[in-house]
Amino acid sequence: MSVLPKRNTEELKTLKTLSVSNSKPYVFHVQLNRADKYNTFTKQMWLEVKECFENLHINPDCRAIVLSGAGKHFTAGIDMTSMMMMGQELGEIEDVSRKGYVMEPLIKLYQDSVSALEVCQKPVIAAVHSACIGAGVDFITAADIRYSTKDAWFQVKEVDIGMAADVGSLQRFPKVIGSQSLARELCFTGRKFLSDEAVKCGLVSRVFENQEELLQGALELAELIASKSPIAVQATKNNMVYSLDHTNQEGLDNIRNVNKLYLQSEDFLTAVAAQLTKGEKPNFSKL
Question: Is 242 helix (H, G, I), strand (E, B) or coil?
Fold first, then answer.
């Protein structure tokens, strides 16, 4: 029996800045839901993203996740009004060291919110339309797969507001696109780049004509992933994430230690039997 508490979708209905739906078997659609504010990130939204993905991480009814944005843009990044309010609160503290004590846990909260997508065992597909600015780039680079519309555009904008990106872009973005030169150019300048450049550099893997086709494509991919063995898919994600920051041999050691158990699972036998008989698609039990 698992020592982790099993989560259910009822807990996600209380979220105010996100809309969470489950219209396909084992597929969850998480939508940034501050359309009137271009899905900009307030402290509440950071908290709710973390809560949502931690829920789905151990939710047995979830095997794949699509992340999209409601309204005109995917996200316009950080909510500047919230930033100004935080500045006013810090202004009431005179000592710079004590200001740092206030800032450190807040930055850590935002970092953990973004990392929740990467830590989540379920594959996350980011479906980006129109603007994806600042924090948006942090979030999509923590996702596993990125699709976009033709009109999508991206911007690592933090330098334009006088700060260094501190919740993931500087760490993940260069690895995602595979070019330190281009990553540094975009992070040093805050230059806006379009979907054609994004697909060329590997930030996104598919481009769609419009948002409707984008969501259809992302949900179809999620449905395909969700039809596979959850043990196989989650072990694959875990090892690929692990291998990003480890040597090839360490990655091999990790998957060997995992597979000495997982190759004995019912999923392996079920999937092999289905391949050999060419019969109906296999059904895999919940984890």
Answer: helix
